[in-house]
Every structure is written in structure tokens, then in C-alpha cells.
């Protein structure tokens, strides 16, 4: 099983709507037995975020200033693998089977899988291409990361090799 980590950088109305879409998409993973829990990470609490977290059964984490949001979420996540997402990220069809296969067959030295993000801008896509060759120093939305590696601190040392997944993320 995996934990879904959703980083809400700015709790504006559009982010709240996107968060609801992302949490709704994770319900299929819960029903399939892949997603065990969800953690919403934000820098500033808001009543809307508290309401969504309470209604969905997710854990709301208000991270201290200067801490990495993925690490703050990993500290309260309950599963060994973490799916990093942003509000509005919706896994496309077939994501459950792809992530389940990745988590179930990953060797002990495999610590990071990456979903494709066709909606990412050109700089982000170029950076992802480079990281597939030289390794990853920090996670981004769309990554499936071992919790223990994330809790060990950033940047990842040594750089983590990326295993590209067949699943992809769309935007709501």
C-alpha cells in the first residue's frame, strides 16, 4: 500500500477545488487496496483545508517554515511508499495497476518511480529528462518514493535512479 501526499502550496480557491479533484481520484486507489491513507501538507492552515481533510479522512499537516513539504508529510504517513501530488493532479486510467506493479516488484535498492506529467512546462520536462540520466536529488509531484529515503533527508545522497512508470498525471 501507499500513502498519498498532496502539497498545497497556496490554499486559494483554485487549489481547494484541485485538491478535491485529486482526493476524489485517489478513492479508486483506496477501493482497489493500493492507497492506504492521504496526507495534505500546507504552509498555512485554512478552514477550507481543515474541512476537506476532515471530510475525506485525510491528515492535515501544517509544516513549519523552512521545512520541505514532502518530508513533513512523510513524517505522518503510515505506508512505506509515498505518492507525491499537487492539487489538481489526477492519475490517468491504468495508474492503479502500474503503481501496484512498481511497489510490488521494486528491489530494495529501488527508491523512486516517476509518473509522466505531459502538462508540465518545457523546463520541467527537460529537467526530468536530465534526472533520468544523472539521478534525482529531490522528489517532485508525480513521484512514488520510499518513505525511509525521504525521511533520511534531502538532497538524496547518492542521487536516486529514476524508474519511469507507464502511468501519467493529468490536470483537472
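^ C-alpha cells above, recovered residues below v
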Amino acid at each position: 500500500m501507499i500513502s498519498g501526499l498532496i502539497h498545497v502550496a497556496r490554499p486559494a480557491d483554485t487549489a481547494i477545488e484541485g485538491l478535491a479533484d485529486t482526493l476524489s481520484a485517489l478513492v479508486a486507489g483506496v477501493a482497489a487496496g493500493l492507497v492506504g491513507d492521504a496526507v495534505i501538507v500546507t504552509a498555512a492552515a485554512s478552514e477550507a483545508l481543515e474541512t476537506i481533510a476532515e471530510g475525506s479522512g485525510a491528515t492535515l499537516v501544517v509544516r513549519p517554515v523552512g521545512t520541505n513539504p514532502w518530508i513533513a508529510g512523510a513524517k505522518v504517513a503510515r505506508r512505506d511508499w509515498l505518492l507525491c501530488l499537487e492539487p489538481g493532479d489526477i492519475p490517468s486510467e491504468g495508474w492503479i495497476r502500474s503503481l501496484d506493479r512498481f511497489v510490488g516488484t521494486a528491489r530494495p535498492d529501488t527508491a523512486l518511480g516517476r509518473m509522466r506529467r505531459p502538462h508540465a512546462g518545457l523546463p520541467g520536462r527537460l529537467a526530468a529528462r536530465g534526472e533520468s540520466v544523472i539521478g534525482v536529488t529531490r522528489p517532485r509531484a508525480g513521484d512514488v518514493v520510499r518513505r525511509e529515503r525521504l525521511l533520511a533527508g534531502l538532497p538524496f545522497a547518492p542521487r536516486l535512479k529514476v524508474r519511469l512508470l507507464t502511468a501519467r498525471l493529468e490536470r483537472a
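Residues 13-31 form the longest helix (19 residues).
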